[in-house]
Design goal:
The chain is an all-alpha fold. It folds into two domains: about 5-105, Histone, subunit A (Orthogonal Bundle), CATH 1.10.20; about 115-175. Helix content is about 75%, strand content about 0%. The chain contains six helices and no strands. It comes from Chlorella vulgaris. GO terms for molecular function: chromatin DNA binding; protein heterodimerization activity. InterPro entries: CBFA_NFYB_domain, DNA_Pol-Epsilon_Subunit, Histone-fold. This is Transcription factor CBF/NF-Y/archaeal histone domain-containing protein.
């Protein structure tokens, strides 16, 4: 099945993924394992446990979760792409993904995802401000360093000129 046909509808996209059309994409195993363990710890805490239990996850379970996640991402993306096409746009936005979640009956994920998206944007804004401040400080220190360097060069030039003026007088005194 050609890739363009696979994105025409969510069901075709999922079929293409199952048939091996998306074998090139692989979710990082370490990340998947970390997510699975965190989910199990949250479940343990919700079930009355302390939430700090160290769960062991089999390689096959990690692979199965990875494949399920990959299928979910493809299906969600294809549904968001449909929403985008209906609006006659080519770029999928966060709102398209949120709408796709509701269309796929995952409405309970919309609010947590909105909160995570806002936190991500706020974090990036803070990082951007820090980068700008750091850049300004660097420019200020470079300017100050340039001023100090110029003053240092002038001082060195003056020191070099003074011994030259004294040296001929001393040399003249020795010759007489």
């Amino acid at each position: 099945m050609p890739a363009t046909e696979a994105l025409d509808s969510p069901s075709k996209s999922a079929e293409a993924c199952v048939e091996g059309g998306a074998d090139t994409e692989v979710l990082p195993k370490a990340l998947v394992k970390r997510i699975v363990k965190a989910g199990l710890q949250q479940w343990d805490a919700a079930a009355g446990g302390d939430g700090k239990r160290d769960f062991q996850v089999n390689k096959d379970a990690v692979l199965a979760c990875s494949e399920a996640g990959k299928l979910f991402i493809h299906y969600l993306t294809a549904t968001a792409n449909d929403t985008c096409r209906e609006a006659r746009r080519q770029t999928i936005s966060a709102d398209d993904v949120l709408t796709a979640l509701e269309d796929l009956n995952f409405g309970e994920l919309v609010e947590p995802l909105k909160a995570a998206l806002e936190a991500f944007k706020a974090e990036n804004k803070e990082k951007s401000k820090k980068r700008v401040e750091t850049s300004k400080k660097r420019k200020a220190s470079v300017t100050a360093d340039d001023g100090l360097a110029a003053a240092g060069e002038q001082q060195q030039q003056q020191q070099q000129q003074q011994p030259q003026a004294v040296a001929p007088a001393a040399a003249g005194g020795e010759a007489s």
